[in-house]
Fold these 3 entries.
Entry 1:
Amino acid sequence: MNKWIDEHTGRIIRQLTNEPHGARMDYFRLPRFLPNGQVMAFDVGDDRSILFVDPETGEVDRRRMPIVRRLKLRESDGRLWYVGESGRTIWMVDLPSGEPQLIAEVPEEVPGHFIDITCDGRTLILGQTREDAPNNPKMHLGTDAEALWAYLERPRSAWLWSYDLQTGRLITLDESHEYGFGHHDTSPTDPDIVKYSLDAHDALYQRIWLARVDGSEVRKIRPQEKQEFVTHEFWWPDGKYIGYTYQDRRYDSTLRRIPWAEYAPVPTHFGVARLDGEECYLSDPLNHYHSHLFISRDAKWVIGDGTDGHSFVYVAPFSFDSTKVDFVPLATVHTPYVPFAGQAVDACITPDSRWMLYNDTVDGKKQVCAVALDL
């Protein structure tokens, strides 16, 4: 295992993967741990290979599977639902060594892209975005404000559906002809609800929404006033809360000129809302903006992906009883920073709270690294 002393924090860094084309863990808000403590990662050069990494020893097991799209990993028992090679079949497998089982074939007339599935494996979440102009601008990842606004304000329509794999019932959950939907994410514990966001500027539109998969209710999570900036939402491990970052830009005249949260001239806070939509926690101002914030499985640690000028992976103790969240840098992040996107750090803490895991660039390739959580 490759090890070195971090040049800024003085801590020992352990490189857990050494894939020739690189390896990475999934997006920060997605489940990734198996009951045996292994973390699920992926070979950058082989999209059909799943890597099972032991955070303690660095041992890596590999399994090739005919997966077109991963839908959901249920961490409680390691069950993974995924889309099979035909693009219309839904499978499940108990990782790391179970045999895949076909659970449904979705008819061609069912619309949309397969995005997620509920934690009981019954309800599929589908979405579709239609670009309404022939030359809509592409996503801008840079510091040209007008190019970013052109992308965010492009004409488009979007739909969000649920599809019951047992009954074949298709329900429209939401529809828009002004913006798109994104970050679709079913509850880790409740098979009846899905969280999603608007694909629009987060300070001008309501960011977080919750829908019941039977179509009976759509509600706002942390209702926003115009120019309140809420973003990077995620489920609490027990499914009882939703976390996010918050900035108050209601009195900030620079929003059009500086649309990025990471460069905003206002402080960033860590917020938490109940599922009824109301905010129940807001931290004091953080030491700086973080590309992503996340919570450990025991809800005792907040994880912070650094940002431009603060290229570290951070951790801070968390309690609902204290509004103070003091982030400590554990490891330097060497991946180049991209405005509006971050550094794909996707950090997390192992279930035993011994290690902080994160993606970083080593010798020009993304790999999974670890640093001890020894505060």
Note: The radius of gyration is 20 Å.
Entry 2:
Amino acid sequence: MVLVLAGCATAPEHENFKQVMGAQVGKRIDDADAYPVFYRLREVNAKPLPNGNVEEEYAAGRQGECRLFFEVEPLTRRIVGWSFDGSERKCVIVPAGPQ
């Protein structure tokens, strides 16, 4: 029962995370208000995709345990898609600022 309640408590934070990430699509990855810049995320990896875009990987979440991926169009540097790898508890929005 406790695990069920704990799982429910994290859902709103994760839903917020997904909404914020969805709102990044269309922004330039280098814009001051783009999530990776605003939250000063550490870029972990970048790799070319078969369609010519680049996948940029960042360490996100409370302790960098969520892997956040942005698909970026290289000429415009616009975010065209995103995904994540991590649990609902790890992939959440954390306050901006020095960490």
Note: Residues 1 and 96 are 33 Å apart (CA to CA).
Entry 3:
Amino acid sequence: MSKKLGALTIDEKKNRFQIDKSGGGLMGSDKWFDFSDLISYKVRTDNQRDRVGGSFRILGTRTSGSTTKLVTHSMDILVTLDSLNTPTVSIQVIKKPLSGKAFDKAIKYKDDTVAGLDYILRHK
């Protein structure tokens, strides 16, 4: 029986996994990798920019000015594999600025994928 964690489908009994690169579970892969094929992974966050807007309070007094908030414009997980045919796989998590529930969903997808990759590394 396989278990889905973020971008991964893990077959614990056969010590193998599949990677869905779409970032939303829409584009599956039929390529299976053995646990031993996973070398490493890295979460990459690019294009972080400060966004300025709104006003803020200092000691209960409304102050003109603005607050700064960091916005992530893209995030992916780069997986390095011991395979000449597929040496790296990039899993796209965020491809445009997100907020609210969409951002929370993307971060959960990333966290679940990372948990799956950590599991594979511990059990290879």
Note: Confidence is low (pLDDT under 50) at residues 23-27.
